[in-house]
Each structure stands twice: as structure tokens, then as C-alpha cells.
């Protein structure tokens, strides 16, 4: 019963991350279209995306989910914080059950032979890389000629843990020229509406999780109406999104 209600909540505008996740899935589905062969994901985090992508793209022969750390301490911290509020806390923070990684290694120093993979993936990772030029040089090295470097990265988004940079279209053009890559797709389906909704909803989530105890019952009471309002208004505004105010970009490079 609780699981069914949770699924219903997560798939409704009452959920704080509803619009953000909806837009993100649409963008990632677009850039992952046609993916096949040998695939590596860097910055895989909790590892949950691997099975989802393999299920959606049966032409993938092998998928390696990697990260620079097993993130044990970070996931324990998130889990402890979320568990104080039970299942409600887990839903609010978007916490999922962790899966194991295939390898623990740095995205800027991958322990694989050159030209091994057909696709190099990362999702919401590039902003956490302190040496982005090395990241792209390494990604280019491990993909085959004609292979793809596929990623999503935030643009107008709140600061979070180990958050170094934000990137623009001009940066992606620069990376393509520097690494003999072709920029085949630079896409965003978000604009001012989604960005404002994401910022406003994340602000209230943080106040509920971290604010004064005396205010939390009141904030929880108004939260569903608050989230629903911002999600629906954001969706309406971004029927025709102005990508100069994008929440994130979805990008594909091809190795020449």
C-alpha cells in the first residue's frame, strides 16, 4: 500500500522533483537513442541507472558502471538524514536503493585500453569534475572512432556537494575543436519555468529537512500545494522553453 502511494506521489506534480525528473528523462531519452555496443558510465553514483538504460536499449552488449569512489560515507549520510523522516524523507530527497559499481576509478584517469567503448556516458557529473579538459581527453581516448560521448550537465541549478563549474554552448564548441570531436547534439527542453520550479521546490525541501523544528510541521502541511503550483506553472511556461535559462543541457559528441 505504501509503495503504491509512493509511486503515485512521485508521478504527480505533488512531488517536488516531478517536473525536473520529467524533463530530465525526456532529454536523456533523446540523447541515448540508438545507443549500442560497449558502454561505460562514469560517475554512476548509486548505480541504479545501469539497468534502466540496458532494459531500454537491448543492443548494448556490455555496460560498465564506474565512479571515482564507492561513495559509502556519502550514501550513509544521505540515508541517515532521510531515515529520520521515514519513507517521506527518502521520497523528498530522491533517495534510491544503492546497487554495486563495476569499477572504482577516476573519470580523468580511466584504466581501460584506448578505443574500447562505443559510448561514454555521464549524467549530472561534469560539474563535479575539477579538471574538465582532462575529463574530455580521457573520454575521447576510450571511445572508438565514430563513438559517442553522451552526457547531461546542469546549467542554472543550485550549488551542491563538490560543485565546481557551469557550462555553456560556447564551451562545448571549444571542447569539440580541442579534441577533434563533432558536436552532434546540444539540447535542452527546459527554460525559465522549469528552472524557477526546480529552485523553488529544492529550497522548500531543504527548509523541511534542515530548518527549525518548530516550522517543519507547517512547511510539510503546505508543501503539496506549493510543489504542485510551481511544477504546473513551470510546465506551462516551458511549453516553448527559452534555453538561455535552461536547467540543464543534454549533449552528444562524436569522435572523428
Write up what this structure looks like.
With 256 residues, this protein is of the alpha/beta class. The chain has one domain (20-190, 246-255): 3-Layer(aba) Sandwich (Rossmann fold). 44% of the residues lie in helices and 19% in strands. It contains 9 helices and 7 strands, in the order ααβαβααββαβαβααβ. The protein has helices spanning 2-10, 18-32, 49-56, 72-83, 86-92, 132-142, 169-178, 192-210, 216-237; strands at 37-41, 60-67, 103-104, 117-123, 143-154, 181-187, 248-255. The chain has a 7-stranded mixed β-sheet with strand order 3-2-1-4-5-7-6, with helices on both faces. Strand 1 (37-41), helix 3 (49-56) and strand 2 form a beta-alpha-beta unit. It is globular and about 55 Å long. The mean pLDDT is 90.
Number of helices: 9
Q: Report the uncertain regions.
A: none
Q: How many β-strand runs?
A: 7
How much helical structure, as a percent, in the residues? Answer: 40-55%
What would the keywords be for this entry?
256 residues, alpha/beta, Rossmann fold, 44% helix
Short description:
The chain has 256 residues and is α/β, with parallel strands linked by helices. Helix 4 (72-83) crosses helix 5 (86-92) and helix 8 runs antiparallel to helix 9 (216-237).
Element layout with pairings:
Layout: H1 2-10, H2 18-32, E1 37-41, H3 49-56, E2 60-67, H4 72-83, H5 86-92, E3 103-104, E4 117-123, H6 132-142, E5 143-154, H7 169-178, E6 181-187, H8 192-210, H9 216-237, E7 248-255
Parallel strand pairs: 1-2, 1-4, 2-3, 4-5
Antiparallel strand pairs: 5-7, 6-7
Helix pairs in contact: 4-5, 8-9
